[in-house]
Amino acid sequence: MVRSIAHKEFLSTLRDRRFAVLSLLMLALLLAATLVGRRGYATLQAERALAQETVNEQFHHQPGRHPHRVAHYGTFAFRPRAALSFLDSGLDSFTGAVVYLEAHQQNSVNFSPAQQAGSLIRFGELSVAFVLQTLVPLLLIFLCFGAFTEEREAGTLRLLLSQGITLRQVAWGKIDGYGLAAALVVVPALGLASALLFSSEATAGSPDRWARLALFGLGYVVYFFVIIVGAVVVSARASQSRAALVTLLGCWMLGCLILPKATANLGAGLFPAITKAQLDAAVHEEAQHGINGHDPQDKRAAALKAALFKKYSVSDEKDLPMSVAGVTMAEGEAYSSRVYQQHFADLTRTYERQNALSTWASLLNPYQAIRPLSMGLAGSDFAHYVHFQQAAEAYRYQLVQHLNGLQASMGYGDKERRLDAATWRAIPVFTYQAPPLGWALPQLALPTLALLAWALALSWLGMRLVDRSTTG
Amino acid sequence: MRLFRLLFYYEYLHFKASRGLLLLTGLLLAAGLYGIYYGTAEVARQRQHLAELPDLGRHQVAELQAKFPGPADAGEVGYYHQNYALHHPTAWAGLALGQRDVNPYYLKLRLLGLQGQLYASENVNPTKALSGNFDLAFVLVYLFPLLIIALGFNLLSSEREQGILPLLLAQPVSATQLVVAKLAFRLAVVLGLGVLLSAVGLAWARVPLDGRVGLWLALGGLYCLFWFGVVLLVTAWQRNSSFNAVALLGAWLTLVVLVPSLLSVYVAAARPVPQGLALTMQQREAIHGGWDQPKAETMRRFFAQYPQYRDTATIRERFVWRWYYAFQYLGDQSAAPLARAYAQGQAQRHALAQRLAWLSPALSAQLSFNALAGTDLPAHMAFQQSATRYHDALRAFYYPFLFKKVPFTHAEYARLPTHSFTSPSDTSAAWAGLGQLLLSTAAVYALGLALLRGRAVQSR
User: Fold this and answer.
1) Which residues of chain A have pLDDT under 50?
2) Chain B residue with minimal CA distance to A267?
3) Model ipTM?
4) Is residue B311 part of a domain?
C-alpha cells in the first residue's frame, strides 16, 4: 500500500505541468552551475598554476647571489583550488589567491575575488551548492506543501485511511514518491559532476576525491530527506494548503536567508578580532625582546656571539667557522616566527569562536548544517584555508632558515661574497598538498551530527505529530 | 474621496486585526533596528581602529629615535618607518557597509616599492564575509519586498475566495478604486516603516542633512513602489491567492537572488582581471633585478625621470640608500602598465555590473545605496589612488635627504607627510540607479494597469 502511494505521488508529480517546468528549470540551473563552476575553476586554477610555475622557474634561475638577498627575493605561494570546489566554491571568493613569502615577515594572502569585484559579488554566486542548498528546497516545498492538506480538502484522505493504513504509512508513501521525483532533478547534475571529475586525468585516480564526492552526495540526500519529511509533517499539521505553504516559505526565508546572516554578524560582534596592523605591531613588539635579525647590536645577538666565541674558544669573529650574521639571522627568524605563530593561532581561534555560533545554529537550522558540511567536503571551508596558510608559512620558514644556514656556512665576511647560481636550483619549490578527507572529517562532526539529528527527530517526533493530526 | 477614506479605514481595521501581519511588521522593524545597530557598530569599530593607528605610528617613531639617537641616514629611517594611509568612512557607511569589510580601510606604507604594498589585505573572517552584512540596506533590499508580498498577495483574491467581492462591487465603487485604495493603505504602512527606519538610521549614524538624504529616501521609496507594482501586476492577473503567493515569491527569488547571482558569474567571466597576480610578480622581478644591474645604468634611468638629482655624486660604494630607492621606484614604474590595466579591469568590471543592474531592481537599489555610502569598489579604488599620491609625497619628502645627503634629525619625523582620505559619495552613480529604478517601476505599473484595464474584474 505504501508503495502504491509512493508510485501514485511519483506519477502525479511527473504529470503536473508546474512541477515539470520548475524542475526542468532547476535541472537547467544545476547543469549550468556545474559547467560554469567547472569553467571558473579551470580558469583560476590554470592562472594560479601558471603563476606558480613562473615563480618557481624564476627562483631556480637566479644568478649568483648572497643567500640573504635570496631570502628577501623570496617566492610566492599560490593557493590552488580544491578539486571539488567547482561544486561548492565555499569561501573561495573571500579568501586570497597568493601570499608573498619573504624573510622576517608573514604577509597577508592577497587578491581575493571579492576584493577584485564590486558589491555585486555579495548577492552570492551561482554554484551547484547554491542551487542545492537554497533553490532545491524551494522546489521541494512547492512539491510537498499540499501532501495532506490537498487530500483533506478533497476528502480523499478518509478514503485512503478506510483502506486500513495509518496516517504514518500515508506520510512515508508520499515521502517515498516525492524523494524519487526529487532524485530525477538532482541525480543528472551529480552525474555530470562525476563525469567532469572523471574526465580530468588529475582527479580520476584519486580515491580521496571520489570519497569526498560520495559523502557530498550523501550529505545532500540527508538534507533533502529532512526538507521533504519536514514539509510533509507541516502539511499534515496545517489546516489549509495556504497555511502550510506560508509556514514552509517562512521557514525557508528564516533558515536560508536571515539566520545565517544574523548568526554570523552576531558572532563577529561578540568576539572582535584584531586588525593586521595591531597583529604586526604586537609581533614586532615581542620579537624586539628577542633577537632582531637585522640588528647585530642587539643584546641577545651579543650574547649569542659571546656564546659562540666561548664554544669555539676564539676571541675574533674571523676565527669562527661560521658567519655570525647568518647564525643571528636564523635565531631571530626562529624567535619572530614563534611569536607570529602564537598570534596567528589566537586570531584563528577568534575566527573559530565567531563561526561557532553559526555552527551551533545548525541544530536549529538544517541549512546551517549542510553549508559547512558541503564546503568542508568540497575543500573550500575555513579549516582548509587555514591549512594552506600554515603550509605556506611552514615552507617560508624552512626556506628562510635554509638560506640562513647557507649564509652561516659561508663563514666570516659572507657579505662580500655570493653563492653560485646552482645553489638555488637545489632548493625544493613550494608544492601544496591539500589535506585528505580523514583530516577534514573530524572538523565536520557537529554539522554532520546536527543533520542526522534533524533526520532522526523528524522521522520520530515528526511522525508522531503526523499520527495525531486530523483526518478530515 | 470620502469613499477612498472609508476603504482606507477598513483596510486599517483589517490590518489591525491580522496577528500574522502585525507580527511580520514588528519583526521587520526589529530586523531594521538590528541592522542599523550592527552597521553603525561595525563602522564605529573601524573608526576606532583608524584612530589607534597614529598612536602605533608615534610609538614606532619613539622606537626609531631610540635606535638612531643622533642624526640618521634618511634611507634607514625610510626603510623601517611605517606610514599609514587612512580610509575614513562617510557617516553613511554604517547604513550600507558594501565592500568596506573585505577591502582594507588603511594601508601600511614604507618608502619601498608601492606595488608590493598597495594590495595588502586586512584580517577578514571569510566565513563571516560570505554570510554578508546585516545592515539597513540589506533589510530594505531583501526583506522589505517580502513584507510587501505578504501584505499584497491576496489583495483581491481573498475577497473573491471569501465571496465578499461581488458584494463589494455591488456598491458604487469600481474595481480600480478598490485596488488603488487597498494598495494605498499598504503603501502607507510600508513607506511609513521605511521612512521610520531610515530616519532612525540617519539620526543614529549622524548623517549630515543634505541632498543625499532625499536621494536615499527616493531610492528606498521607489524600490518599494516597484514591488507594489509587481503586486499590482500579479493582482491584475486575477488568479487565486496561492498562485499569487507563488508568483510573487518567484519574482522575488528571480530578481533578488537568481539574476544577481547569474550576473556575478557572468561579469567575472566577461571581465577577467588576471593582471593582479602578474603585476606582483613583475614588480618583484624588476626590484630584485635592480640589485644585479650596473648602478650607473639604474641611476641613468632614474635621473631621466628625476633630472633635478642628476648632479649628485656618482655612486662608488657597494651599497647606498639612494640607489636602493631608485630601483624600488623603477620597479614600480615597470609594473605600472600592469597596475593600470588591473585598475582599469576592475573599474570596467564594476561599470558592467552597474550597466546590467537594470535587470534586477534589487541590484540597482543595493549598488546605489553603496555608491551613496561610498562603500563600493570605486571608493576603494579612489582610496588606492590617494594612497599612491601619499606614497609620492613621502618619496618627495625623503628624496632631498637621500640625494643631497642631508642628515635626518629627530625634528624631521614631525614634518613627515600624513594621510587621510574620506570616501566620496558617488551621487552620480546613485542618480543613475534611481533612473534605472524609475524605468523598471514605470514599466511594471504600465503593464499592471494595462492588464487591469484590459480585463474586467471577475468577482468570483
Assistant:
1) 291, 293, 296
2) B128
3) 0.90
4) no
